[in-house]
Amino acid sequence: MKPMIVIVGPTASGKTTLSIALAQHYNAEIISADAMQFYRHLDIGTAKIMPSEQNGIPHHLIDIIDPNAEFSVADYQRIVRAKIDELRQRNITPILVGGSGLYIKSVLYNYRFNGKKRDLKTTSMFAHFTNEELYAKLTVIAPLIAKKTHPNNRKQVIRLLELSSDNTSFDSSEGQQVYDPCFVMIGLQPSRPILYERINTRIDKMIEAGLIAEARHLYDSQIFGQSIMAIGYKELYSYFKGDCLLAEAIDKIKQNSRNYAKRQMTWFKNQFIVEWFNPDFDNFDKTIQEVISYIDTKSNK
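and the corresponding structure tokens:
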């Protein structure tokens, strides 16, 4: 049995294009690890691949929940592991692709959850703590995880504190891989100037494609759940509420997207052993062939 393929990298790095090419080459199906693409109706702002763009490759974990619903890492782990088992039983290679590192790690490693749902009272309890205070709490509860988590990534720190309050195991199982044969982890890492240019261009195209109208529809539909914390929506919500000008909101989307990409790279490099490729966007077929060659070499060892 071929190892599972995992593709990681920052937003706008070419993961979607690479995943489709690999799926066609290896008779594979794609499982999304983008936390915001789980939600229906968040299409443009999440750069969600449309059915017409999938080239006949089945995609899983896209458009699976309503935008006001909550979806935990534990939910993702359970569903994706079942999907991986199903694909392998049909002799199909799973390709796990996305930029949500904690979701990917929960599948690949022996993270354990006790099934408790997120406690909104617990979440609100953290509201009055600074980032430094929250990080200090995480350092006490889960020191190994804290070392690999950025102190200013407030949302992730809070989520890890919530999970630890549910007696979730972090440190004792951190290094134990679940799948055998092991997975092959590929990363795309464009140079920072190229990546930032691609991010800015992508957002301009999102605006042209109707992102403002899409976000406005969600706002008018009273969608105020976990989903609209996605970059591209929360900034436009501020504009709809009159807290900023439209141009300021768009600039903030670009800035937050660039900062998010930087945090993604830091997280992946601290958490995973990845074979990194610098994508050639002028000749992406070359990058695809380099990745295929690497995967074949690893698979035949």
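(Above: one complete record from the training split.) The radius of gyration is 19 Å.
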